[in-house]
């Protein structure tokens, strides 16, 4: 690539950085270590397609120069003066803080969306990677016991690494867990060769958000990884603590004043009701509601009254029947 083309590309990146700093309110610094160019292109395309923001990838020196240009007064002699003039109004608070964090291999994502919405898209595209010599292990990795698929002629390789093995069904089998990588430590030749022989890719890499710049502040993972419910819960908890402390020392604050007013009104209401003083806020409070019709409950000792049954009329008896009537019936 010619020198002129490189300078032209650099100017384009600087102008886009200048534009995005005015267009968006947040800058996400993402780690690109061991991330492939295809993963970066995919993330940039998805951000634009879904209207979530724009992404820039360049050398750290270019980023730092772009931040410095944005903070300084515009130079009329600059070839891009006319292009940048409509975008420059004032310096951006705390922009040098994100500039100082541009170390190693990083990219910048410019967005207005909440972090919890954009983070899944950015960090979802992860790909497996082999363990290369000299790379720092991002995680602890342990090879579990089991068959290796390797013939017994290669058992000396395992013995050299002090890996407990045995021969089972014509192949080498690892008998105990073996830690092949430790987080934060570099991968050696032996560990890399072992993982290659076993065809294991222990690590996965993708874009990872390291810092978020917003309104002059730098937010770390311990803050921007919180979801809205956790944020509301923490805010509520601290507000209650502050309110209780303020009420305890009788100090008016934004969280204690509503409680102070409420408590004062309760005292006024109690005094007014006790002394039969009428105030507007208590109108209708003491009026009795229409009484519901009382239900008479039967006492346990009271027995329900028995209904009087109509008296049956006794059949009239003739005087003759009374003296022996019925003894001379026709059917007898």
Structural class: alpha+beta
The helix count comes to: 12
Beta-strand content = 5-15%
Mean pLDDT: 80
**What number of domains?**
3
Give the full name of the CATH homologous superfamily of the largest domain: Ribosomal protein L10, N-terminal RNA-binding domain
Number of strands: 12
CATH topology description of the largest domain: Alpha-Beta Plaits
CATH architecture of the largest domain, by name, is 2-Layer Sandwich
In the CATH scheme, the class of the largest domain would be Alpha Beta
State the order of secondary-structure elements, H for helix, E for strand: HEHEHHHEHEEEHEEEHEEEHHHH
Describe it.
This protein has 3 domains: 3-126 and 206-221, Alpha-Beta Plaits (2-Layer Sandwich), CATH 3.30.70; 141-203, Ribosomal protein L10, N-terminal fragment, domain II (Molybdopterin biosynthesis moea protein, domain 2); 226-271. Helices cover 38% and strands 15% of the residues. The protein contains 12 helices and 12 strands. It has helices at residues 3-23, 37-49, 60-71, 81-84, 95-100, 115-123, 155-160, 189-197, 221-224, 228-248, 257-274, 319-322; strands spanning 26-31, 54-57, 106-111, 127-129, 141-143, 146-147, 165-168, 171-174, 178-181, 203-205, 208-214, 217-219. The strands form 4 sheets. The chain has a 5-stranded antiparallel beta sheet with strand order 2-3-1-11-12, sandwiched between helices. A hairpin with a 2-residue loop joins strand 7 (165-168) and strand 8. The radius of gyration is 44 Å and the shape is flat.
């Amino acid at each position: 690539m010619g020198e002129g083309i490189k300078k032209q590309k650099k100017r384009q990146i600087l102008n886009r950085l200048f534009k995005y700093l005015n267009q968006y309110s947040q800058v996400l610094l993402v780690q690109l270590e061991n991330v492939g160019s295809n993963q970066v292109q995919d993330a940039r395309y998805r951000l634009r397609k879904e209207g979530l923001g724009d992404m820039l990838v360049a050398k750290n020196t270019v980023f730092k120069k772009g931040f410095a240009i944005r903070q300084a007064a515009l130079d009329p002699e600059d070839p891009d003066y006319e292009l940048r003039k409509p975008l420059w109004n004032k310096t951006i608070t705390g922009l040098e803080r994100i500039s100082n964090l541009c170390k190693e291999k990083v990219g910048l994502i410019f967005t207005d969306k909440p972090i919890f919405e954009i983070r899944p898209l950015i960090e979802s595209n992860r790909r497996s990677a082999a363990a290369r010599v000299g790379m720092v292990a991002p995680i602890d990795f342990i090879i579990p016991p089991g068959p290796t698929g390797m013939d017994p002629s290669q058992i000396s390789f395992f013995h050299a690494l002090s890996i407990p093995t045995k021969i089972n069904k014509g192949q080498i089998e690892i008998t105990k867990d073996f830690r092949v990588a430790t987080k934060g430590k570099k991968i050696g030749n032996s560990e890399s060769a072992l993982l290659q022989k076993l065809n294991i890719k222990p690590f996965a890499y993708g874009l990872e958000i390291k810092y978020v710049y917003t309104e002059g502040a730098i937010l770390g993972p311990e803050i921007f990884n919180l979801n809205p419910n956790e944020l509301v819960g923490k805010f509520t908890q601290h507000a209650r603590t502050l309110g209780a402390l303020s009420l305890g020392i009788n100090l008016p604050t934004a969280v204690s004043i509503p409680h102070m007013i409420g408590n004062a009104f309760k005292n006024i209401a109690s005094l007014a009701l006790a002394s039969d003083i009428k105030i507007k806020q208590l109108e209708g409070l003491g009026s009795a509601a229409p009484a519901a019709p009382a239900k008479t409950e039967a006492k346990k000792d009271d027995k329900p009254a028995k209904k009087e049954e109509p008296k049956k009329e006794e059949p009239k008896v003739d005087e003759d029947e009374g003296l022996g009537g019925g003894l001379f019936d026709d059917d007898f």
